[in-house]
Amino acid sequence: MRISLSVPYDERQMRRTLTFLVGRQAKIARLVGAVGLFAGILLLMFRTPVVWAPYVVLAASLYLLFGMVPVTVAWSMRSQAAAAKEDMQLTLDEEGITLAAPRAESRLSWAGIDRMEETAEVWYAMFGKLQAVPIPKDLMTEAERTTFADFVSRWQAERQSGRSERGNIDRTGESS
User: Measuring CA to CA, how many Å separate 18 from each of 11, 77, 171?
Assistant: First the structure.
């Protein structure tokens, strides 16, 4: 398998990727926000001696529930390096993923990828909890999508079975 894609910088895709990553980590904060919202309502109902306390609890809870992810994504978008905002060449092969842009190049071995997560628009090659390489489906031909989906299925089956320490699939496409 060798798939090479020219990936133009897409701010909307970058936002979707950041929202995907941050949203996964925000579950506990949202739970705290829901508990805080309930506590704030109770504080309002029972007239606490500190008049402003329920409003502070409610404001913090609403932020945790609805504002934290968009604020974090906006901050992350502003913090992106210039190299992350360039068009790049994405190459997928049996050894791993290569991202090449005018100012930077990265190579990730399949052994360094923790898991693959699929959405309607992309596959996310996850390495770590907050790190992912989006692999856009719309830039692939139907044959490339099928080839890559088959590769990912074999790769995941191999990782789950623990047959290979490297997490690679040999060049013939057969599991080693």
Answer: 10, 8, 33
Cβ–Cβ under 8 Å, residues 3 and 92? yes
Q: For residue 46, what pLDDT band results from cuts at 50, 70 and 90?
A: confident
91 has pLDDT over 80: yes
Q: What does the DSSP assignment read for 18-70?
A: HHHHHHHHTHHHHHHHHHHHHHHHHHHHTT-SSTTHHHHHHHHHHIIIIIHHH
Instruction: Identify the CA nearest to 5 among candidates 98, 133, 139, 101.
Output: 139
Closest CA to 63 of 23, 38, 30, 16: 30
Asked if 121 contacts 45 with a C-beta cutoff of 8 angstroms, the reply is: no
Structural tokens at position 174: 């057969």
